Every structure is written in C-alpha cells, then in structure tokens.
From TrEMBL:
Keywords: DNA-binding, Phosphoprotein. It comes from the Bacteria. Pfam families: Response_reg (PF00072). This is Two-component system response regulator. GO terms for biological process: regulation of DNA-templated transcription. GO terms for molecular function: phosphorelay response regulator activity; transcription cis-regulatory region binding. The lineage of its organism: Bacteria, Pseudomonadati, Bacteroidota, Flavobacteriia, Flavobacteriales. SMART domains: LytTR, REC. It comes from Chryseobacterium glaciei. Residues 6-117 form the Response regulatory domain. GO terms for cellular component: cytosol; protein-DNA complex.
Length: 239
C-alpha cells in the first residue's frame, strides 16, 4: 500500500480493540491514531483527530455503529466490523468502504484497507469551479451556487444562479463535465436542462421541486423532475 491509512477504532469491547490494533500494527502503511470504547466520546473527539478512516463495531450498547456512521460518513471513510451478518444491507446503504465479519482475519482486513486506500488517495472534488464565463476566467465557490440551467441563448452555455440572485454564464460546458466538478452530496440533476443545489430545495414531491429561489419576490422557481432522474433523487433523500 502506498497511501498511509490513519485509522481510529471504535468498539465497546477492550479485547476486540487490542486484537484489532495488533492486526493493524502488522499491516504496512496503517497507523492506529486512537481507539475508543464509547461512541459518545468518539463523536466528541473525531473531528479533531488526524485520521482518514474509522473502523466501527456495529453492535454497541447505547448507540450502534450504524448510528455513529450516519453522523460522520460525510467526512470519514468507514469500515464496519461485526459478528452479525444481518447488518450487511444496512451497512452498505451507508456507502461504507467495507463490512468485515468477526472474528477478523488479517488477510480480510488487508483487503478492506486496500479498498480504503483507493478511496483515500482518490482526488477530492474542490469546493470551487474555475471556468470561462461571461465576465472572463472566473472562480465560483460551489457553496454559493443555488441553481444551474441550460442557457436559452446558447445550449452549450450554462446559467448559474448564485444565492444572492446573481447570474453567471459558464461558457461551453456540458452538464456531464459540470457535475464532475460539483460535490456529489450537494447537487442533483433534476432533468435534462436543470441542476439544483440541495440547499435550495424547499419542497420535494414525486414530480416537482419547489425551490427557495425567488423569481419576483413572491413566487419561487419550480422544477419538473424528469423520469430518468427520479430514482437518483429519491436515493439522495433516503427514499
């Protein structure tokens, strides 16, 4: 493994922690930053630790590893460990790196770390877009983007509406390329001609999205959901 995996362990059993730490020490380019046996203490400290992977036990008293993962999955990669196979479907619903059954074998743990390495070393999407616009070469911070649509003047261009109502025109850029630049968790394509920032959605129904983007101070932009995009939108909202 080339990329260093810096992991944090959470398991309510001290013996399980000791065994897992022992295995990790035998694997190249893996460092255990810290280990916890209490989910609440783990959650209080995790944001301040220099780590890129969390190994979570699922069955714990008070708070399960699944509940913990829901709170940190946006910022950390996760490997689940458990003696119970019935949690596999729920674990993968959370888009985790891997699900390792106890008793953990070193070879199986190495496989999980290899998967994690590929994700950790993958280039992260930037929080800004740099592109030619109607005002020249421009940097747009993605958190400021409310809504994107195909330009009515030239379909090769894309109109971006910012949170303050400003419109910027991205020149000669396809939706496919644009979506590759945007943070996946923050934006969704609604139909062939429109992309919405999830933070701009006010009401979501089967066929329509009502946004928080005002047209004239009273009415709000409504978007029709294309059939091709319904399933992916529903998945984003956990439906």
């Amino acid at each position: 493994m080339n990329s260093m995996i810096k992991c944090v362990i959470l398991d309510d059993e001290l013996l399980a922690i000791s065994y897992l730490k022992l295995l990790c020490e035998q694997i190249e380019n893996v460092e255990v930053v810290k280990a916890f046996n209490d989910p609440k203490i783990f959650l209080n400290e995790i944001d301040n630790l220099d780590c890129n992977l969390c190994i979570l036990d699922i069955e714990m008293p008070g708070m399960t590893g699944l509940q913990v993962a829901e709170l940190i999955s946006d910022s950390k990669k996760i490997i689940f460990t458990t003696a119970y196979k019935e949690y596999a479907a729920e674990a993968f619903d959370l888009n985790v790196v891997d699900y390792v059954r106890k008793p953990i074998k070193k070879e199986r743990l190495i496989q999980a770390f290899e998967k994690a390495k590929e994700l950790v070393s993958a280039p992260q999407k930037k929080d800004f877009i740099e592109w030619n616009t109607n005002i020249g070469k421009t940097i747009l911070f993605t958190e400021q983007i409310a809504y994107i649509k195909t330009s009515e003047i030239d379909s090769r261009d894309k109109d971006i509406i910012l949170n303050d109502g400003t419109t910027i025109v991205l020149k000669n850029l396809s939706f496919k390329s644009l979506l590759e630049m945007l943070p996946t968790k923050d934006f969704a394509q609604v139909n062939k001609k429109e992309i919405i920032a999830l933070s701009s959605i006010k009401i979501f129904s089967t066929n329509e999205i009502i946004t928080s983007i005002s047209v004239d101070g009273e009415n709000f932009i409504k978007l029709q959901i294309g059939d091709t995009y319904k399933n992916s939108l529903l998945e984003m909202f956990g439906k």
